[in-house]
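User: My instructor asked us to take a sequence, write out its structure as tokens, and then describe one feature of it. I'm not sure where to start. Here is the sequence I was given:
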Amino acid sequence: MENGLTKKRAVKEVPPESEFDDDPFLSLADCVYLAQTSPAELASTIERGGIFGWDRFGRYKHFELGSPEACIALDALATVHARYLQRKQFDSTDAADLPLDDYGWRVAEWPAFPGGSAVPPDEQAVRAEKAKDIACLLAIIGALMRFIRGELYEEKHPAYESDNKLRELILDALPLVPGLRKRNLQDVFALGKKVLADAN
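Assistant: Let's start with the prediction itself. The structure tokens for your sequence are:
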């Protein structure tokens, strides 16, 4: 029988029109590794209101608690949490075998997180704008990485040897800049690549 945590999805349909322009879909991976939302908080949210995503036929829909898809999402978050307990940090490379990109919420669909209240429309609009800004920055980073690697033109940047070496060069040159950490750079490089891949 096919493993629900590792099975591949069918071609995904485009989500229906949203009341917000360019309303982005924020996957569980985005929530954990970009927004730094804990798996426990996300699990509680799913238990309260279900989650959105794509079924095995590629249809975008809402999955209630108890549905096979919601169970797969909860199992994936439980695996992320277990791996966090081992490493004491959230490592996006640990989630490559998990379907975290298949489930999440668009900003307009965001439920109230545990202990919070329903998100008012004006706040949803603010969140949507912030999410668009993040997606734009990640796309720029992804494009710059492709340029440096020589994927846009025939020649790579003369200082480029590998992504790991590039991270080391950045950290050595800018050791005091807040937010520039090896793990942060690794995650941002990967997310930038993902944004461009999703756009294509």
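For the description part of your assignment, you could build on this observation: Residues 1-11, 17-21, 115-121 have pLDDT under 50 and may be disordered. Try explaining in your own words what that tells you about the chain.
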